[in-house]
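Protein data sheet
==================
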Amino acid sequence: MRESALTRSVVLVLVAIVFVQFGSSLAKSLFDQAPPWGIAWLRLLGSATVLLTVVRPRLRGRTRRDWGLVALYGLALTGMNALFYLAIQRIPIGTAVTVEFLGPLTVAVLGTRRWRDVTWVVLAGVGVTLLGFRPEPLDVLGVVLAGLAGACWGAYIVVSRPVGRAWEGVSALAVGSALGGIVLTPIVLVTEPGRWVLQADVVATGLLLGVVASAIPYGLELRALRTMDRRVFGILMSLEPAVAAGLAWLVLRESLGPWELLAMACVVVASAGAVRSASRVDRHLDTSAARPTRRSIRRRSTLPE
């Protein structure tokens, strides 16, 4: 029974990864008709509309801290989406995801606090360096934008834990997406949206991205995490660069050379290794916390649940 539950959870995570990365290819296919930040704007609006309608998060009675956390969450989410779309306008999706993965990898390594885990950073650095050996020069700005998207991804991971305590379920994603849409609105307005905002197919597809690449995969991941160890989840998420490259080839016919594939392999292995190391530290801390002292019991009894 337990194995079947784990198998279902693994399938849910893999399906979520496919949805997210298919969304990236779908978004890039629209760049000839609309700017990347416009597609990111539509995606956030689509996600916010669906989630706010379904979830109906509680907004009254929220503290300044709650709103501050969800604002940071929304900014990280917005930066992660908009900067990534700007990056894949210039470089292949598989390459962009490989560079972007440095963000969550850095967060995982910093969480371990063990010097030997620097190996994973070095391996990832080697992988990114290998991108410079491709026959054709890689767009530097595209790489920088992917790196900034990775930084936003790292910030998103860091703020997800406290915002998850303050906002129940997917409320944070709903409100954060809405705030992100508001933040991008002035940018969209000053870039002459009239050229594409009246095209029904572009707008419909952009809004659909909010469902395909945000609402559905996030819900699948939450359901999977109910029965899946976070270490397994993190290792599965490390497959994203490879899935992104495969779907980009199927949908957009983007191909990667041997150096880029080797770079991707280095980052995937480094990410999986960092997640594994971080989970070992977490298990050690959990084991230590299982034998609390009287002082810690007294201290916990004064803290709210």
